Amino acid sequence: MGAWLSASLPNRCLLCHLSIPAEHTGLCDTCLASTLYQGPVCLGCGRGLLQESGFCGSCQRLDTLAVVAPASYHHGLGSVIAAIKHRQQLAPLAVLCQLLWQRAHRLSLLGLIQLPQVLVPVPLHPKRQRSRGFNQAWLIAAELARYSGLPLDDSLVSRCLDTRPQEGLDGKARRRNLANAFSLNRPCPWQRIALVDDVVTTGATAREIAALFRGSGVAVQVWCLARAEAPGLLSEVLSD
């Protein structure tokens, strides 16, 4: 009955609410195109760049983690990604993961990143996962593995502290909240990994996990569905 009802209901875009073809799910082509980056962005901070150069000058000097995302969280995808995480609205997940993989592949062809050897989803604490029923980072990583052919390793990193949610915390509070929250379960057998999450805001979670790999020389980058850069930063186009 549930499957029949779902099939009989109109397939509508989650953003503009117009009907979309049956083979599409979640977002229409127009809304999807409008949410994507329209030009080069710094992989470190998300600032707009005049040309594809990977990192702006400031992020080059700071040796910032590369964040690979197809879109800004603030340009329409915020409500969609929040619905994936909090309401299990998974309809747009496949197309967003496909766009993320296309973005990563393009950056690798440009020589701006080196593709990872494995996808590592950011873990939830077991208590949080039982409460939510799923880990959205794992679902994203599984979909990316299907598109890319890269393996998924969800046994490498654990969340050992059940910290408070990061929403509403500033950067300093996020860093305090995540101190010692993660642990490595075994030595990393990979040289290059991509941490996978739904959204990157301050990058505190990624940096906390990346620090676990630093001593063994593992190169870490971050893949996410959208980047929540500082307000107005994307429009500050630099020529670095």
TrEMBL record:
It holds the Pfam family DZR_2. InterPro entries: ComF/GntX_DNA_util-trans, DZR_2, PRTase-like, PRTase_dom. Residues 7-60 form the Double zinc ribbon domain. CDD domains: PRTases_typeI. SUPFAM superfamilies: PRTase-like. Belongs to the ComF/GntX family. This is ComF family protein.
